[in-house]
Amino acid sequence: NACLYVVATPIGNSADISLRALHVLALADAVACEDTRNTAQLMTRYGLHKTLLAAHQHNEHEVAEKIITRLQAGERIALVSDAGTPAVSDPGAIIVDAVRAAGLRVIPLPGASAALSALSVSGLINDQFYFLGFLPSKAGQRDAVLENLSSMPASMIFYEAPHRIIESTAALCKAFGAQRQVVFARELTKLFEEIHRCTLGEAADWLAQDTHREKGEYVVLVEGAKADADQNDQEARRVLNILLEELS
Ligand code: SAM
């Protein structure tokens, strides 16, 4: 029975947890979590009380050893993050890898994911997507990453913090051009959920229309590059940007 269960938890609406996840959390001997206060609240909401093991960005290697010892003693451990699917732009991958390398079993419990929820309502018609997670916070690194993606045909999915949404959107427009479609999926599953699709050229105005839009959680999706004409356009824009930078 010893096993690490990687359990997805809600990204807002507390009803978005699976019956199986509740069952596993109820059976677990301990729950490894990103933030013990958040997870304690989550567990209380479902009437569960368990030993919580702090497993955050800074102690994953250390806690992985503790989890392995417990698993070897026959325990069942659940791993959760603050929201959504663990190990996706969240801690968890180091623990999973250590447990796997120790020859122990890891079982996923699928559930909420901000990226896939946003993709599912984006209306972007494309069976390929590229999930990038958070863009680098430094402007130079961010722009270099975007530059490399500008001719990619797959739809792109980004996570972004609200205090950077305006700046990042401007960077997306500069890298991909004003004609590309963008989808903002804000506060998914929560009271002020908003899903808005427009062109990158229209995006700054939409963000400026309501000050609430500088708050909340965002998934941003950008449509992929279209056929050749678009790519020629991208190339022209890239060269133009280089020339403009030389001039300034
Ligand atoms: N592991 C999570 C998942 O599976 O979706 C993602 C965790 S990551 C640290 C948090 C980021 O996910 C936020 O900054 C935001 O970009 C996105 N996110 C999480 N919840 C969201 C929600 N309810 N609505 C929109 N975006 C959300």
UniProtKB/TrEMBL annotation:
Organism lineage: Bacteria, Pseudomonadati, Pseudomonadota, Betaproteobacteria, Burkholderiales
Keywords (A to Z) from UniProt: Cytoplasm, Methyltransferase, rRNA processing, S-adenosyl-L-methionine, Transferase
GO molecular function, one term: methyltransferase activity
The protein, known as: Ribosomal RNA small subunit methyltransferase I
This enzyme's EC code(s): 2.1.1.198
Enzyme superclass (EC): transferase
Location of the protein in the cell: Cytoplasm
Superkingdom assignment: Bacteria
Domain named Tetrapyrrole methylase: residues: 4-203
Family designation: Belongs to the methyltransferase superfamily. RsmI family.
Reaction it catalyzes: cytidine(1402) in 16S rRNA + S-adenosyl-L-methionine = 2'-O-methylcytidine(1402) in 16S rRNA + S-adenosyl-L-homocysteine + H(+)
UniProt keyword annotation of Transmembrane present: no
Record's function text: Catalyzes the 2'-O-methylation of the ribose of cytidine 1402 (C1402) in 16S rRNA.
Any one Gene Ontology BP term: methylation
Keyword Electron transport tagged: no
